[in-house]
From TrEMBL:
Belongs to the group II decarboxylase family. PROSITE patterns: DDC_GAD_HDC_YDC. GO terms for molecular function: transaminase activity. Its cofactor is pyridoxal 5'-phosphate. It comes from the Bacteria. This is Aspartate aminotransferase family protein.
């Protein structure tokens, strides 16, 4: 895709639109010396070189990649106007786009036409909103989430002044259902957070089983699909359908288009199955809502000002890569195929050991050290990561995840537990190009051992 061509097209269309309102003279206070601008821009470009190559498949560290060119063009097109999707008065066009993309996300999760939702600036804020509604519906009752859930849930429980209950996980890093039921029996929990795709291991928690248990104790179920939510598009292929299909019966769900939706930061989304929860957001503004009797997006969100450009970027992207298995789903499928194949290669390796079978596009593994102890594994994993990212020639960028001695014992009892835990190597293969680059990446890891 020729990004330069479409950026020029966007700029030309913007100039054509602004010309319809007549010429005017920009204020002198806004004028800058071209030489000064050129110098400042050169400095900016030089400073931006102090980044890791998120665009390249040699970067397999964190959940980072550049947005799709369509997202860039869509975002820029709207950013030049700078609409605010808080109210229809601030962005009628992008507010309509937001409704369209949110409707698409809702249908992807099986919510149908009756739902409530909007884009947010992040998954953190999206989860905050879901827990805010949960607190409003179950005052005095806390929130349960697995010990492998994202730290945002414990943090947001603190913000909302509600009690958080970490639930132990099983040998695959998923919420322990017996422990969950024991907690629910106490009556202290009003909401259970379930994660189909944990951020450390990519483990798919059994949404359908959690839902069955939670309903027996009158508890809401919130799905944190910030990382894994878009894998719903692959349900029923080589991913078990049941956890993903159960999302349609859960009370709320969060997904981050700025992760697997190919969008720039920040673009999260929160959706509620029951649109009546909008009553908890109701407020009035004497100067904001005046051009329309329709429900303004700011009336159903905790955030006020929000970038309409985020909606435009997502809208244009989904016009080209729709929310289907053959559309955006193929982008995710490529990364997952890469993860599954790398796991197969690691299993045959004499130098590496697979820590846990990948379920989505995260692979965890560690060097086979001598002696095979947690302290040796920890040191070797850290050394490989550090050496790879700091190599002057042919660097690769990995990350590490910490695993407790109990987690190691459940997966690898052959590793001597001489310390409390160890770091293992962790690679996120969320760029589809990882599929073609995998052999090179694997060979480079072996060279670092």
């Amino acid at each position: 895709m020729d990004l330069q061509h479409w950026l020029n097209e966007a700029l030309a269309n913007h100039e054509k639109w602004t010309a319809e309102y007549g010429a005017y003279t920009p204020h002198s206070s806004l004028q800058v010396d071209p030489a000064v601008f050129g110098s400042a821009l050169a400095e900016l470009q030089d400073r931006l070189r102090d980044n890791y190559p998120f665009f390249h498949p040699r970067y397999a560290g964190q959940m980072l990649k550049p947005p799709h060119p369509a997202a860039v063009v869509g975002y820029l097109s709207a950013m030049l106007i700078n609409p605010n999707n808080h109210a229809l008065d601030g962005g009628p066009a992008t507010a309509a786009m937001e409704r369209e993309v949110v409707s698409g996300l809702a249908h992807m999760f099986g919510y149908g036409d009756q739902h409530l939702g909007h884009l947010t600036s992040s998954g953190t804020i999206a989860n905050l909103e879901a827990l805010f509604v949960a607190r409003s519906l179950h005052p005095g009752r806390g929130v349960a989430y697995s010990s492998e859930a994202h730290y945002t849930h414990s943090r947001m429980c603190g913000v909302l002044a509600i009690e958080g209950f970490p639930v132990p996980v099983d040998g695959r890093g998923r919420m322990d259902l017996d422990a969950l039921e024991g907690l629910l029996k106490t009556g202290k929990v009003g909401t259970v957070v379930v994660t189909p795709g944990t951020t450390a291991l990519g483990a798919i928690e059994p949404v359908h089983l959690v839902l069955d248990i939670a309903r027996r104790y009158d508890a809401r179920v919130h799905v944190d699909g910030a990382y894994g939510g878009f894998f719903t598009l692959l349900a029923g292929t080589d991913l078990e359908a049941a956890p993903w299909e159960a999302i349609a019966s859960c009370d709320s769900v969060v997904v981050d288009p700025h992760k697997h939706g190919l969008q720039p930061y920040g673009c999260g989304a929160v959706l509620f199955r029951d649109p009546s929860v909008g009553r908890f957001y109701l407020h009035d503004s004497p100067y904001t809502y005046f051009t329309s009797d329709e429900l303004h997006l700011g009336e159903i969100s905790l955030e006020c000002s929000r970038a309409g450009a985020a909606a435009a970027g997502l809208w244009l992207t989904l016009r080209l890569l729709p929310l289907t298995r053959d559309g955006l789903g193929e982008v995710l499928a490529a990364g997952r195929r890469a993860a599954v194949r790398w796991a197969s290669i690691i299993r045959e390796s004499e130098e590496l050991e697979l820590y846990q079978e990948p379920e989505l596009d995260i692979v965890t593994y560690f060097p086979r050290t001598t002696p095979l102890t947690l302290s040796a594994v920890d040191a070797a994993s850290h050394r490989v990561m550090e050496t790879g990212m700091n190599a002057a020639v042919d660097p690769i960028f990995l990350s590490v995840a910490r695993a407790s001695k109990e987690a190691f014992a459940a997966r690898h009892p052959e590793v001597e537990a001489d310390v409390d835990g160890a770091r293992v190597l962790r690679s996120v293969l969320m760029k589809p190009e990882s599929e073609d680059y995998l052999d090179t990446l694997h060979a480079r890891v072996l060279n670092l051992l």
